[in-house]
Design brief:
Layout: H1 19-34, H2 36-44, H3 51-75, E1 77-81, E2 86-91, E3 97-102, E4 108-113, H4 115-118, E5 123-128, E6 137-142, H5 144-154, H6 164-176, E7 180-184, H7 186-195, H8 198-222, H9 231-239, H10 243-269, E8 272-276, E9 280-285, E10 290-296, E11 300-307, H11 309-314, E12 316-323, E13 334-340, H12 341-352, E14 360-362, H13 367-387, H14 389-394, H15 396-416, E15 418-421, E16 425-430, E17 435-441, E18 447-451, E19 461-468, E20 471-479, H16 480-498
Antiparallel strand pairs: 1-2, 2-3, 4-5, 4-10, 5-6, 7-8, 8-9, 9-10, 11-12, 11-17, 12-13, 14-15, 15-16, 16-17, 18-19, 19-20
């Protein structure tokens, strides 16, 4: 049962007492993660160590970790500084620190319940601010009611002069209106997992295999077992296989990568629920770790829709919402996987009050193909020829395959690269297999710049860069006269918005 909140966040307070157990388990995990090699060596050579020494070492280690967890718990305090409108965190055992975050700078507050937290019925709260790639503050052990109340208050638009209870009540009343809730089905998430990121999964799997062989080799050397992996022998034996055998192995690894990616995606996004109110969206998902994130409609800067050919046939896509201070490289981007086209259109229309329609389109000049061919084919081959011409000539068939594949990619990329614009919106389309459509409002742009190299003047080509508070986006080799007109219109809209 959720407890009613009687304590004010304006007074310093600690986490839930079960946080001591959680901090202890975290400390144990960190020790094992850092010293896992020595743990394995210990079990391999345990016959050389007396049993009383083992017991004594374990007891001493546990005692130190318990004391550290207790001290971490009692030294961790958080509260809201009403006068300065700041959220304050005190923490540390020996090196104590104080973190202060202005309430107005708080970008996002996420509540999650990792697998281990479920045993203690507690939640983790993370606070994010603009310009940071990692979470600024993490409170690891809160009751659900305290986590929800603190989140609602930190994201409330009302000033600190109001009492905490009043601000929470205002937020509750606002969210009651026009609430809409729907789920992304397990089948849709599975479809997305099968059709997305399989190249990354394949490369990650190959990297993991190489890392595993290396670690096993190092471990065997440490335990003085005279076994050494001869990579030259392995390579020669691998190349001795027939082509069908090699292709079969590659296919098996790709299938394994797809399966791993599908399972990982299903675990991460399981039971994905979207709750919408008049101000924001709330995303809740996760099988072992339940996560909760909020997308404030007024703070959305860029919406990125990603879809490949297979997903297009399945009528699903991946949508990312970039807010102020967020960029696409960050891990904690608010996103919806496997969303249907109809639901995607509804989400976008509720944020911008309409679905963007574009009357104008700019395509890059064919000279971009020549530039990319020189950059990704001719230049690498020339450098490789200078370094080792015999190897290049010896494997000439691989060179031809490389040229054909890369040139196909260049042509596909050129075909997909487009700039769309209307009176209110701009969209950049790019990609080879996964096609990205990045859409943003002209009025929310910080600035726009166009540039032209001296060798582009004769051909009347140039590039344009759009700067938003969620990053910058650039497209090249476009008609420079049309870019000037677009620049002037964008600057006009930005200045009108400022006034």
């Amino acid at each position: 049962m959720e407890e009613k909140m009687h304590n004010s966040f304006f007074q310093p307070q600690r986490q839930s007492k079960t946080g001591i157990v959680l901090l202890f388990l975290y400390n144990v995990g960190m020790v094992i993660k850092s010293l896992w090699v020595f743990v394995i060596l210990f079990f391999v050579k345990k016959d050389r160590v007396e049993s009383w020494m083992i017991i004594l070492a374990i007891l001493a280690g546990l005692a130190v970790l318990i004391v550290a967890a207790v001290l971490q718990y009692y030294n961790f305090r958080y509260y809201i500084d009403k006068e300065n409108e700041e959220f304050v965190i005190h923490e540390g055992i020996i090196n104590k620190s104080v973190t202060k975050i202005k309430k107005e700078n708080i970008q996002e507050v996420n509540i999650s319940q990792p697998f281990i937290h479920r045993f203690f019925n507690i939640y983790k709260l993370e606070i994010d601010t603009p310009g940071s790639s990692e979470k600024e503050v993490k409170i690891s052990a809160l009751t659900k009611q305290n986590a929800v109340d603190l989140k609602k208050y930190l994201l409330a638009e009302s000033k600190l002069e109001n009492t905490l209870e009043e601000s929470i009540e205002i937020t509750k009343n606002e969210t009651v209106k026009n609430v809409r809730c729907f789920k992304i089905s397990t089948l849709s998430i599975l479809k997305y997992g099968i059709t997305a990121n399989y190249i990354q999964s394949f490369l990650a799997l190959v990297s993991l295999l190489i890392y595993g062989f290396s670690e096993i080799n190092n471990l065997l050397q440490k335990v003085e077992i005279d076994i050494k992996l001869d990579y030259d022998t392995i390579e020669s034996q691998f190349l001795a296989f027939s082509i069908p055998m090699i292709l079969g192995i590659v296919l098996a690894v790709i299938i394994l990568g797809i399966i791993i990616n599908s399972v990982k995606t299903l675990i991460k996004y399981f039971n994905f629920k979207i709750t919408e109110n008049n101000q924001s969206f709330s995303f809740e998902y996760g099988l072992f770790t339940t996560r909760n994130s909020i997308v404030n409609k007024s703070k959305v800067q860029v919406i990125t829709e990603t879809q490949n050919w297979i997903q297009k046939k399945m009528k699903i896509s991946f949508v990312k919402f970039l807010q102020i201070g967020k960029n696409e490289e960050e891990k904690n981007i608010s996103a919806v996987p496997g969303i249907s086209n109809d639901e995607k259109a509804k989400l976008i229309s509720t944020i911008w009050k309409e679905n963007p329609v574009f009357e104008n389109c700019l395509k890059p000049n064919f000279r971009l193909i020549i530039v990319n061919t020189f950059q990704f084919i001719i230049l690498p081959l020339v450098l490789f020829f200078i370094i080792d011409e015999n190897l290049l000539l010896k494997y000439w068939f691989l060179t031809i395959i490389y040229i054909v594949i890369v040139e196909i990619f260049i042509l596909i990329y050129f075909k997909n690269l487009k700039l769309f614009y209307s009176e209110r919106f701009i969209r950049l389309k790019s990609g080879i297999w996964d096609i990205d459509n990045r859409t943003f409002e002209i009025e929310k742009l910080q600035t726009v710049k166009i540039s032209q190299y001296f060798w582009q003047r004769k051909t009347n080509l140039g590039s344009i860069t759009f700067y938003t508070s969620a990053g910058r986006f650039k497209i090249v080799a476009l008609n420079f006269i049309k870019l000037k007109k677009l620049l002037n219109y964008c600057i006009y809209k930005i200045e009108i918005q400022k006034k």
